[in-house]
Amino acid sequence: MPEPGKKPVSQPPTGLSASAFSKKPRSTEVAAGSPAVFEAETERAGVKVRWQREGSDIAASDKYCLVAEGRRHTLTVQDVGPADQGCYAVIAGSSKVKFDLKVIEAEKAEHQPAPAQAPAEAPAREGVSQGKSQRPLLTGSSSAAPHGPAPGGPGAPEDPIGLFVMRPQDGEVTVGGSITFSARVAGASLLKPPTVKWFKGKWVDLSSKVGQHLQLHDSYDRASKVYLFELHITDAQASSAGGYRCEVSTKDKFDSCNFNLTVHEAIGPGDLDLRSAFRRTSLAGGGRRTSDSHEDTGTLDFSSLLKKRDPKLEAPAEEDVWEILRQAPPSEYERIAFQHGVTDLRGMLRRLKGMKRDERKSTAFQKKLQPAYQVSKGHKIRLTVELADPDAEVKWLKNGQEIQMSGRYIFESVGTKRTLTISQCSLADDAAYQCVVGGEKCSTELFVKEPPVLITRALEDQLVMVGQRVEFECEVSEEGAQVKWLKDGVELTREETFKYRFKKDGQRHHLIINEATLEDAGHYALRTSGGQALAELIVQEKKLEVYQSIADLAVGAKDQAVFKCEVSDENVRGMWLKNGKELVPDSRIKVSHIGRVHKLTIDDVTPEDEADYSFVPEGFACNLSAKLHFMEVKIDFVPRQEPPKIHLDCPGRTPDTIVVVAGNKLRLDVPISGDPAPTVIWQKTITQGKKAPAQPAPDAPEDAGASDEWVFDKKLLCETEGRVHVETTKDRSIFTVEGAEKEDEGVYTVTVKNPVGEDQVNLTVKVIDVPDAPAAPKISNVGEDSCTVQWEPPAYDGGQPVLGYILERKKKKSYRWMRLNFDLLRELSHEARRMIEGVAYEMRVYAVNAVGMSRPSPASQPFMPIGPPGEPTHLAVEDVSDTTVSLKWRPPERVGAGGLDGYSVEYCQEGCSEWVAALQGLTERTAMLVKDLPTRARLLFRVRAHNVAGPGAPVTTKEPVTVQEILQRPRLQLPRHLRQTIQKKVGEPVNLLIPFQGKPRPQVTWTKEGQPLAGEEVSIRNSPTDTILFIRAAHRMHSGTYQVTVRIENMEDKATLVLQIVDKPSPPQDIRVIEAWGFNVALEWKPPQDDGNTEIWGYTVQKADKKTMEWFTVLEHYRRTHCVVSELIIGNGYYFRVFSHNMVGPSDRAATTKEPVFIPRPGITYEPPKYKALDFSEAPSFTHPLTNRSVIAGYNTVLCCAVRGSPKPKISWFKNGLNLGEDARFRMFSKQGVLTLEIRKPCPFDGGVYVCRATNLQGEAQCECRLEVRVPQ
User: Fold this and answer.
1) Which residues, 6+ apart, have CB-to-CB distance to 384 below 8 Å?
2) Whose C-alpha in 73, 471, 645, 1227 is 20 to 30 A from the C-alpha of 176?
3) Which helix (H) or strand (E) holds 441?
């Protein structure tokens, strides 16, 4: 709003108020194939200019030609085509001008006149009138992206040594605008995400400054495998300018990049004032502009009109720089020095220290707020100021908004102190606070420190198949904490194809992937403010395992045939085929699917059912086949007397082998015939002796030498004996065993008898099962992320050969096992990889045969993958003598989880390959003296680091070392603090250490004042590299000049030290009272006789009242030997004493006056004033009389009036002339002159005239009313 009486200044169009261009490019039309030229002129030379097309920077190439000559800048587009048509822009600082390029065909160009060229020096207002050729100035944001091609594209810079693919570039921004710096890091060769830190200046870590105006972002591009890190600054201020640094580090690499940010001042359209352009204001607080409410504050400076001169001719005045530094806080020194070209920072700090800082004393505050406060989340903080005026009004502001009192914000006022208390601090309280008193204010910043969120239960590795559901679970220490989920170092968000689902349940956090794909495999991490948990997800191709395949069946007529198989996935569907054609279920053929078991049942088998049957799982290239054999019952017609017969396909002497899986039902269905009906006897042959699974049956022909190894015994099987059931009908006998076991294996004999004869058949039953669990595996060859697992075959293979093994591992503290292979392992060892170093693991193994998978083996002994350490660094030779070599080195950069057990040192002759150990065992120190070496030998030395994993790579000296001592001139290295006078107090120890050099070991000599040192109190200790002068308790006599000399043959070096032993001074001498007048006493004394061997710093004067003899200090650090003590009390007597002070302290005793000094008391009589007594008594009077009432019977009624009087009158109530004082139905109250009569549940009898009478010594008053009690109808 303009000032009253002043005409508002007209505002120029947007884009010209702060334009950096004196000549701007214009939109043009160019014929196809011709070049297009655009010219721009800046206000001053040296301005960085960028050209853009469709918002993207243009770099110099064959297509685009960029020329910059002083203030003139040209863009030439060669061979213009339709693709070049569009919107272009030129940017200088915070000014941006847009223009269009239109391409026309060559034929049309011949008939169309060329646009007239505007004069080069056209005024700015004429350029505005062109309308479309101008664009408004953009001051909102800026970008610090480089001008070159995008990373990964043609021409992208490659850094074969560093980590950066694209480094942050210098940037410019207007005050209040935004800017983003980007850094790209190649991640193709990185196992883990790199660590990136942003700094301002040399040491300010920007991660601690993240907030509303500064954010850090990172992302990962899986296609290009490039990490993108961004630093985003919003609402830039002048203090944001300066040098920045980006550091990126990985496990074994480090890289950094420096860049600068320039912040330009901007004049807003609403704040334009001609005088403000020339007004010089002071900068304080890191470049922030300070001003009050007056517009005319500041002096007018027309030097800005000279800005168009060559900047090389202008140099800022030195006084201005020091004035800015003197007013600025120390945190801004480096930025100001960088802007003004000050390179000697130490000299600058020394000069500033010597300058007297002119600080304006506050008139409103005695004590201001501290610059910053820090409080932990959930705690209480108190912000306190002290005011000069105890009655002043105070306002508290938070981020510029006034704070209102509430449950969390409490204002306190005690005397001159004003306190703001914030209870239960949260992150929302992290802000800038101000205390405003009148026109003055003091500011501070409150930083709320959030306690780190710790991980109480880590993530667990998972192995799943494609399409399965994955759920990671992690537990943290704080409920509702903010966490980040990352995959391979890249943060996961809900917006990514909605694949990831995040769930919070108290302190537990879940990451859910509903259907896993191969691309989901990787390392997943949950990151909190106090650490992170890491787990690996392995996604395997979906494979189907067959736990039980279908087997061939031999079934008789009218029987039931059942084909059954079991697969690994219970959700897999399948199709049954008969001779390659799909089998359609009907009333006789049934197909069932229960869990992992698929079953085909055929009732009443007929000869047409004999065929090949197959089960084909849906979605898998797998086929399970079996054959159904139809057994024909051959029954010949015989007379009535028919001998019994067993009808099998092969009823010979050789027993048929029937294979059954353990746990399944064993059913032996034998057709029989005979008349009369035969008796069936089932027997099992029990063998003793050498067990051989392939031996012949007992009634088979005997082989030579085999009959002596077998002893047979037959056990009769009853019809119902435990799991055994025998069912016999006229034409068949069925033998069933429920849940076959290993003990059921053997030769079963079926015997049929009747009076005519008998028949007998042997059936061999073999029970197969899963193998026994192998023994616990053994771990060997443990490396950094791998190990070798070995195991033995199971003791029992289940009757089937072992097809392979399955290996699993888990972390020691976890309960979840993760499978390492899906293809069976044929060998008895396997090299396991992809383990995390420093984490304890356990292994177990399964054996697999045709029946299925065994139980798991016991877990192996826990082991921890540990790799050997890296090579030591900075190996150097420190000293050499005729027989020894002193070596030193630094620990390796990579130590690993195994730590360091020590170092081994070896040496060998030059040209020889045999290394000799310099010591037996290992040394934990990083330095060593190798002794007993041959003189003049040329030796190479190497050092290895060792841990539990073994020795690491060695580091070897670059050149051979000649074992020969070198003569070195003696030299004293006197420390800087010993080159000045050394002051010590009496009784303190003196320990002067002076290093020296020289070979061979020099001779050291100490003298004092030219005489050799004598006495037991001074001791000298010498070593090969230094000498020490030691005095246990210093005395004044030890003061003097000491000289130390080091000598080697005829060469020597000397150094002189001055030692000053100081003590407390003696008290002053001859203190006396010179004069006493009024309330004052003049004292005088002489300096002390002994100053303690140092300068007297001053005196302390004290006084004591003769009555109490309590001493009070009057003057401190007083330099003169006379003073005046004032403000004494009249009529009292005083003693005075004086202490002397030096650098050690005050004297032990004081000089005291011998006689007291009395202050005379003049005679003054006090007459108290006389006051006249006042009479405040008053007769009673009713200020509010009673009023007539009409009430309903049965409801409590109250009569009220008010009376005044002094002394307090006595109150009496009457009804129809009768005193109501003793009636319980009436209650009378009197409070502060208000009189109340309560009538409880009145009846018509209670109606009448009520009187209230008030009486005191001054008189009497009364008032009355009529009460009517009505009975409700």
Assistant:
1) 367, 369, 417, 418, 419, 420
2) 73
3) strand 440-449
Backbone angles phi, psi at 437, to 5 degrees: -130, 105
- Cα 414 to chain centroid, rounded: 42
Q: Give the length of the chain.
A: 1273
The answer to whether 420 and 441 have CB atoms below 8 angstroms apart is no
* Interatomic CA distance for residues 1185 and 1250, integer angstroms: 12
Residue type, 227: Y
Order across the sheet with 1003-1008: list the strands. 982-985, 1051-1062, 1040-1048, 1003-1008, 1011-1012
Q: What is the DSSP string of 277-315?
A: GTEE--EETTTEE---S-TT-SEE-GGGGGGGS-GGG--
Residue 265 burial (CB count, 10 A): 10
Ramachandran angles phi, psi of 785, nearest 5°? -140, 20
- Identify the pLDDT of residue 692: 35
- The conformation of residue 360, written as its DSSP 8-state character, comes to P
Burial of 20 (0-12, 13-18, 19+ CB in 10 A): buried
Q: Which long-range contacts (CB under 8 A, 24 or more apart) does 1121-1127 make?
A: 1121/1068, 1121/1084, 1121/1085, 1121/1086, 1121/1087, 1122/1074, 1122/1082, 1122/1083, 1122/1084, 1122/1085, 1123/1082, 1123/1083, 1124/1080, 1124/1081, 1124/1082, 1124/1083, 1125/1080, 1125/1081, 1125/1082, 1125/1083, 1125/1101, 1126/1079, 1126/1080, 1127/1079
Tell me whether residue 958 is exposed, middle or buried, using C-beta atoms within 10 angstroms of its C-beta: 0 to 12, 13 to 18, 19 or more. Answer: exposed
Pick from 1085, 1095, 1096: which is nearest to 1151 by CA?
1085
**Any idea of the CA torsion for 738, 742, 743, 747, to the nearest 10 degrees?**
90
Asked whether residue 95 falls in the same domain as residue 32, the answer is yes
Range of the domain at 741: 642-685+720-766
**Tokens describing residue 342:** 């000050």
Question: 560 and 626: one domain?
Answer: yes
Cα 271 to Cα 266, 268, 277: the distances in Å are 10, 5, 11
Q: Which residue has the tokens 């190649």?
A: 186
Query: Which residues are within 8 A (CB) of 1072 and not within 5 positions of it... i.e. 6 or more apart?
Result: 1083, 1084, 1085, 1153
Q: For residues 423 and 518, state if they share a domain.
A: no
Does residue 65 share a domain with residue 27? yes
- Give 747-783 as a 3 state SS string: EEEEEEEECCEEEEEEEEEEEECCCCCCCCCEEECCC
- Residues 525, 613, single domain; the answer is no
In three-state secondary structure terms, 271 is helix
- The 10s digit of each residue's pLDDT in 183-206 is 999 888 777 888 899 988 867 788
Name the one residue in this structure whose structure tokens are 């294979």. 659
- Are 684 and 714 spatial neighbours (Cβ–Cβ below 8 Å)? yes
Q: Residue 1146 to residues 565, 770, 783, 1140: CA-CA distances in angstroms? A: 104, 97, 70, 6
- 426 and 535 belong to one structural domain: no
pLDDT in tens, 364-420: 888 888 888 888 888 899 999 998 888 888 999 998 888 888 878 888 888 888 999
Domain count, the chain: 8
Residue 648 belongs to a domain: yes
Q: What's the whole-model pTM score?
A: 0.36
216 Cβ partners below 8 Å, 6+ apart?
A: 198, 206, 207, 210, 229, 230, 231, 232
Question: What amino acid occupies position 260?
Answer: N
Taking the CA atoms of 361, 364, 366 and 369 in sequence, report the sign of the dihedral they define: negative
How far apart, in whole angstroms, are the C-alpha atoms of residue 960 and residue 615? 77
Backbone angles phi, psi at 1191, to 5 degrees: -125, 170
8 A C-beta contact, residue 761 and residue 651: yes
Q: Are 360 and 402 in contact (CB under 8 A)?
A: no
- Return the minimum-mean-pLDDT range out of 37-41, 211-215, 435-439, 467-471: 211-215
Complete edge-to-edge strand list for the sheet that includes strand 589-594: 546-548, 561-567, 597-602, 589-594
